[in-house]
Amino acid sequence: MTVTAETTADPVELLSPELVADPFTGYARLREQAPTLTGTMLGGPPMWLVTRYDDVRRVLTDPLFRNNPASVPDAPAARTTIMKQLNIPSDLVDYLDDKLMQIDGDHHRRLRGLVSKAFTARRVAALRPRVAEITADLLDRLAREGRGGAPVDLMAAFCYPLPFTVICELVGIDEADRAPWYEWGDCLGSPTEHRARIPAVMRECVDHMREVIARRRSEPRDDLITALVQAQEDNGDRLSEQEMVTLVFTLVITGHETTTQLLATAVLTLLENPAQLALLRQDPFRWPQAVHELMRLGPTQWGMPRYLSQDVELGGRTIPAGATVLPLILPANTDPRRFEGPERLDIARDHGGQDHLGFGRGAHHCLGRPLALQEAEVALHALFSRFPELSLAVAREEISWVPRPGVTRCERLPLRLDRQP
Question: Which residues contact residue 296 at a Cβ distance below 8 angstroms, ignoring those fewer than 6 apart?
């Protein structure tokens, strides 16, 4: 369905080819048409889409918008509908629920508190030398692959393996066990393309994680899985096996996908803004601020759905209790009511208070934010320093994008490391 003023009386299909190919234009059109409208995904029940910055921020922070649909009696069973469409076995459905994002209140504070004890700032900071080492190794391989002006696919050679390797080392996925994770992540992240494979992939993934957790119980290591096994509150509360399986699955899959796409969209954006890239080369201390600006402009398109516990006035309309509400991050982050020149890359833009919503906001903000920022800063600085003549190997319109719920996903990013005559 084309996203136009004439057609948006019908629910907007969030994975439509138009929104996948050009999310900036499509979501901007929706935002300027209305602050709230209806949409759907994968044939599920209609949802309320929230498009403007102030309203999206409220959805992310106001406890009236709950993450757990079970706590809202009239909430439609959208997730259950999708699970049935994908033929997920009933004994595996709970493992697909992101417990940190699907619960609220005391239960959420308990679970996040236990995980946070393992996912500490110290652990992330200690990873920086290793992130730099992995980056340097990948750039060496990239240089060999691109020798003589041969085009390289930055997605396969750099954007994917860097965050994937980092999160696997942090979590504790052995190198010998990593190959299946790519297939699992690709399959579960693109359900429209791999519908027939999803039940078997879920079974393989859950069985593997149970095995790894069992190994860490008997053979502890200095990794996140061991820390989750050992984590407990003062009252002796521990994570259940199901909670640990779900958390490890969530951390590995989501812990690299967003960063992978951040690297891809950031490289593309910087190549299209050479004056801004020149400022970064002149003053590398700008990179941390620049990464926030690049995160504002992508790749997150929308956040997790929320469920209204009572009637709420939002965007000039009354949204009823029980409704499913989807906060659209990309149009909020490019809302001219909040940002001056919102679609322009400005690495001097002040994000000191992280006013963009790329990592969410409120109690459910992204736990991996410090790691994603660190990886992007190290990787982008090193990439553009190592290859100052980096350029696209194809026309901009030839870059392909694939449907991925909530994220702008680049399929291939062909580049040349040196300019050709």
Answer: 333, 334, 339, 349, 351, 356, 358
pLDDT digits (tens, 9 = 90+) for 250-268: 888 877 888 999 999 999 9
Q: What is the pLDDT of residues 146-196, one digit of tens each?
A: 998 899 999 999 999 999 999 999 889 999 889 888 888 777 766 556 667
The C-alpha angle 332, 337, 340, rounded to 5 degrees, equals 95
User: Could you write out the three-class secondary structure of the chain?
Assistant: CCCCCCCCCCCEECCCHHHHHCHHHHHHHHHHHCCEEEEECCCCCCEEEECCHHHHHHHHHCCCEECCHHHCCCCCCHHHHHHHHCCCCHHHHHHHCCHHHHCCHHHHHHHHHHHHHHCCHHHHHHCHHHHHHHHHHHHHHHHHHCHHHCCEEHHHHHHCHHHHHHHHHHHCCCHHHCHHHHHHHHHHHCCCCCHHHHHHHHHHHHHHHHHHHHHHHHCCCCCHHHHHHHCECCCCCECCHHHHHHHHHHHHHHHHHHHHHHHHHHHHHHHCCHHHHHHHHHCHHHHHHHHHHHHHCCCECECCCEEECCCEEECCEEECCCCEEEEEHHHHHCCCCCCCCCCCCCCCCCCCCCCCCCCCCHHHCCCCHHHHHHHHHHHHHHHHHHCCCCEECCCHHHCCEECCCCECEECCCEEECCCCC
